[in-house]
Amino acid sequence: MNVFHEALYRPLFNLLIWLYDVIPGADIGFAIIALTVLVKLALWPLTNASLKSQKALQDLQPKLDALKEEHKDDKEKLAKSMMELYSSEKVNPLSSCLPILVQIPILIALYRVLSDGLHVESLSALYSFVANPGAINEMFLGIVNLGERSVPLAVLAGLFQFWQTRMLLARRPPKQVRGKPGAKDEEMLASMNQSMMYFMPVMTVVIGASLPGGLTLYWVAINVVSIVQQYMVFGKKAKS
Fold it and tell me: With b meaning 16 or more CB within 10 Å and e meaning fewer, what string describes 44-70?
């Protein structure tokens, strides 16, 4: 726990307070947004690798559907053909997982920082070279108290979550193979994704409405940056 505290939590906490000190207006909301953007930029290469892998798998889906239709009665031949396809297309179906796993400890630390960042007693964790503001202004834009629950921010987080999830939906199999045995798995995956597209935003609103506004603002900010990054990856691929 000390390693986690010193290696991740404390540096992020000090960065948050430093941003609060240097950004004009003494608004913790702007510091939270700036910290979220900086963390996302630091994780940008990892996230990009994961998104590109997901996009590559989506692009391969029609070929995978064709293989499943062709070898629907021979699972061994199907598995071999799929591995050959992954190899020829230079796509690793597991490569989207590792970047996400690497990010988890950092995101947990960031969550902890934003949970504690509005409390004066947490300022004892500041480094000697980071100015102690003495108190934290919890009002964002002068109207939203980030130390209390905020339903409007939770709804906003849910809307952006819906947008982000929709961008990541796996495409359904082509019409010519849809409904055939080889495409049943993809039909099921598409149906699950469709449910997640609505379930995740609802859960975001419910959970966000029970959290301090500072954490919900972080949720909004990280979804917005994620949408921008996804658009850059998927949009660039679509145009090429």
Answer: eebbebbbbbbbbbeebbeebbbbbbe
Q: How far is 186 from 183, CA to CA, in rounded Å? A: 5
Which amino acid, residue 103? Q
Strand partners, 212: 149
Q: Are 170 and 56 in contact (CB under 8 A)?
A: no
**Per-residue pLDDT in tens (0 to 9) along the chain, 240 residues:** 587 778 888 898 899 999 999 999 888 899 999 998 998 888 777 777 777 777 777 777 777 777 777 777 777 777 788 787 777 766 666 665 655 666 678 778 877 887 776 677 788 888 989 988 888 888 888 888 888 888 999 999 889 988 887 776 644 444 444 455 444 555 555 555 566 677 778 888 888 888 888 888 988 998 898 888 878 777 655 554
Q: Which residues pair with 144 in a beta bridge?
A: 140
Instruction: Please spell the DSSP secondary structure of the chain, one letter per residue.
Output: -HHHIIIIIHHHHHHHHHHHHHSTT--HHHHHHHHHHHHHHHTHHHHHHHHHHHHHHHHHHHHHHHHHHHTTT-HHHHHHHHHHHHHHTT--TTTTHHHHHHHHHHHHHHHHHHHHTT-GGGGGG--TTS---SS---EETTTEETTSB-HHHHHHHHHHHHHHHHHTPPPPPPTTTTTSGGGHHHHHHHHHHHHHHHHHHHHHHHHHTTSBHHHHHHHHHHHHHHHHHHIIIIIHHHH-
* Identity of the residue numbered 64: L
